[in-house]
Amino acid sequence: MTDSLEAAWERTDRIFGFVADEALLVRPIPLRQPLLFYVGHLPAFAWNHLGRGVLGLPSFASDLDALFEAGIDPPDDAEPPRQDDATLWPPLDRVLAFRDRVRLELCAVLGDPALAEVLSMVLEHELMHQETLMYMLQQLPAAAKRPPPSSRLRRRDQRWPRCASVCVSPPAPRIWAQAPADSAGTTSGPSSTCLRRRSRSTRCR
Length: 205
Ligand SMILES: [Fe+2]
Prior knowledge:
This protein is mainly α. The chain has one domain: dinb family like domain (Four Helix Bundle (Hemerythrin (Met), subunit A)). Helices cover 43% and strands 4% of the residues. The protein has 6 helices and 2 strands, in the order H-H-H-H-H-H-E-E. The chain has helices spanning 2-16, 35-54, 62-70, 92-107, 116-139, 152-156, and strands at residues 165-168, 175-178. Strands 1-2 form a two-stranded antiparallel ribbon. The longest helix is centred in the middle third of the chain and has 24 residues, at 116-139. Residues 158-166 and 168-205 have low confidence and may be disordered. The site of fe (ii) ion (FE2) has 4 residues, from helix 2 and helix 5. Fe (ii) ion (FE2) binds at residues 41, 45, 125, 129.
């Protein structure tokens, strides 16, 4: 189950890797939240249920726990915005740092038997949202998307993707190591992932 969740995180990052930064506040389906919400919602759901919920761990960003649990409803359901005001949402870097901290905290405890039942729910939630995100991406104009990772165009984009910490366990217990920074020198970004083996860290691309 732990492997499945880590694989799901990696797939989630690949999906968000198709969205240009400037499109993250777009609501491709108007009555859904903007895409940035889902960047934070998936880790918040996992953290609120597994870390805070089952294990009773202390919150490290209570405002984000709450924001990404429910999102921000439009003031008028009849005319929802197509793009949210940036002042309503935390900056992308903070959301990504939240995501990475959640993964770091959870990687240390995912083997706890007490999490087993809720872990399957969290995995199902992640997979369900991946399907919904694909519907949303279908509604985005081409200009709001990034080329696939295999594209030469993607390789020329120095901002994307960026690697964050990876979860390393050769063989046990797990330890944390820092994935290679990209050419811009940053080590955080939507393609970060929690991986089990050092050799796989190079897959963060
Ligand atoms: Fe959800």
